[in-house]
Specification:
The complex is a heterodimer of chains A (about 350) and B (about 130). Chain A is mainly α. In chain A, about 55% of the residues lie in helices and about 0% in strands. Chain A has helices at about 15-25, 30-45, 70-95, 105-115, 130-140, 165-170, 190-195, 200-210, 235-250, 260, 265-270, 275-290, 300-305, 310-325, 330-350, and strands at about 5, 65. Chain B is mainly alpha-helical and about 130 residues long. Chain B has a single domain, classed as Histone, subunit A. Chain B has helices at about 10-25, 35-45, 50-80, 85-90, 100-105, and strands at about 95, 110-115. Classes of the chains: A mainly alpha (about 350), B mainly alpha (about 130).
């Protein structure tokens, strides 16, 4: 999309071939990149520009909105900057015969990157008389502003997935003779236990989603409600949306009586506390009621978790379409409009 | 490091300032989260267990981004706004960080950003939110 290269004094020639990989590194859609984007947006918001010429703005002017590409670029440049600092500092440490870098290496790297605003005096020992002082001045001047939401420890340790209990643990008979008792039980054998352990199952499904999405190193627990700028919203929120829309699928299936009062507590227990999602969920369950597909409930709770990778719209569509076979022709039109409404709603929510 | 024999006192001063600053970084929370910086530093091969160094990098990066942003802001203010945008801006009085200003600002820092001429970006994506800072 955007081609950019950083000239940091090392020389730009022959870098073209690497630039694609670099771009992959610094312009992606992974979680860390999204975090960087948010941080950069936050920093840009905090930058103020005071000018006496503009009388109407007493407090100074600041950016309140961003072009997507500009923000992406700036975040990419910032990440590249961190990367370059790290690389150069490591280089200096290695030149000095050390494995771990120290502060002087970083200062040297900063000097190499030319972030000193003044002319750096290369004769001086650290070359940091300007540089460090600039940074110190900056930390004094800039408003101290922590990141918008609390993050858990960054490379989150993946939870171990628990294998389903074996036949002997469930104390169920294997359906066939050739299946030994010590094998993990089939999902349908512990239908009774699913009811009780539905919450844990839901959670397992969710964590699976987070694991499967590449490079997502976080869990949603450390997030707070955000208001205002959409650029400062939690990057994981989109994930949550997606997940909850998947979970909504479950709600299509329960029969008339149990849909509202029975299954929603289970979803509630899975702690997706988003208003939109709630609305979504309720409306969906109402839909489910309208259509009134008579379906066994628990079995569906089981295998919908496995298909989480599908896009949500598609999933709902299919699930509804699959049910169409059971409907009379009259209901079809209503349903179609319902589906379309649903899609629009989901789309707008996702956006 | 093999430099700095000749400027002993200046070095001493700088060292003291640097040490003091590093110590003060323990209390300072940069906007860029530590874990993010640590992650990307680790990706670049730099390893250090010291959170102060990570914060030093974080603060330096923050300063860099803030400098670029303030330059872009100046470009944005200095540029005569086109008529259509003017109306819009007068209406809701908000500044949009555009690619044009950003590339100008970044050029001063040695980053050449080539902005595709007819790239249809969506500047309106950021226009929806409630005004937070005003």
């Amino acid at each position: 999309m955007l081609g950019w290269s950083m000239s940091n004094g090392v020389g730009e020639g022959g870098r073209r071939s690497q630039s694609r990989e670099k771009r992959k590194l610094f312009q992606g859609s992974d979680f860390s990149y999204a975090l960087a984007r948010t941080a950069v947006a936050q920093i840009c918001e905090s930058v103020e520009f005071n000018n006496n010429m503009y009388q109407e703005s007493r407090q100074g002017v600041r950016f309140t909105s961003f072009q997507e590409s500009a923000l992406d670029t700036l975040a990419g440049v910032a990440l590249h900057y961190i990367h370059s600092i790290g690389k150069t500092a490591q280089f200096y440490a290695n030149v000095a015969g050390r494995v771990e870098g120290n502060s002087l290496d970083i200062v040297q790297a900063l000097a190499d990157l030319g972030s000193a605003s003044g002319v750096s005096d290369t004769g001086s020992c650290l070359a940091d008389s300007m540089l460090v002082r600039d940074i110190i001045r900056y930390t004094g001047e800039a408003e101290k502003m922590p990141f918008v939401y609390a993050l858990p420890r960054f490379p989150i340790t993946k939870e171990k997935r628990h294998a389903p209990p074996s036949f002997s643990e469930v104390r169920a008979e294997p359906p066939d003779v050739h299946i030994p008792v010590w094998l993990p039980s089939f999902p349908e054998t512990n239908v009774d236990t699913i009811q009780g352990g539905a919450v844990s199952k839901e959670n397992g499904g969710r964590s699976e989603v987070f694991k499967s999405s590449k490079d997502v190193r976080n869990s949603p627990q450390g997030e707070e409600e955000m208001e205002g700028n959409p650029f400062l919203t939690a990057p994981l929120r989109f994930l949550e949306n997606r997940v909850s829309n998947e979970l909504v699928d479950i709600n299509h299936f329960p029969d008339k009586h149990s849909s509202n009062n029975h299954h929603i507590p289970v979803l509630e227990a899975s702690a997706l506390s988003d208003d939109i999602n709630w609305k979504n969920r309720f409306s969906e369950s109402e839909d489910g009621e309208k259509k009134g597909g008579a379906r066994p409930q628990q079995t569906l709770l089981r295998f919908k978790i496995g298909t989480l990778k599908r896009p949500s719209c598609l999933a709902t569509k299919r699930s509804v379409q699959g049910r169409r076979w059971f409907k009379e022709g009259e209901v079809k039109r209503e349903k179609k409009s319902d589906i379309e409404e649903n899609h629009q709603r989901i789309d707008s929510d996702v956006k | 490091m093999n430099h700095g024999q000749h400027s002993g006192e200046a070095k001493h001063e700088d060292d003291a300032a640097l040490t003091e600053f590093l110590a003060s970084l323990m209390d300072y929370t940069p906007t860029i989260p530590d874990d993010l910086v640590e992650h990307y530093l680790a990706k670049s091969g730099f390893q250090c267990p010291d959170v102060r160094l990570i914060r030093l990098v974080a603060v330096a990066t923050q300063k860099f981004v803030a400098d670029v942003a303030s330059d872009a802001l100046q470009h944005c203010k200095a540029r005569p706004a086109p008529v259509v945008k003017d109306k819009k801006q007068q209406k809701d009085k908000r500044l949009v960080l555009t690619m044009e200003d950003l590339s100008k600002a970044l050029r001063e820092y040695g980053v050449n950003v080539k902005h595709p001429e007819y790239f249809a970006d969506s500047p309106s994506t950021g226009m929806d939110p409630a005004t937070r800072d005003e």
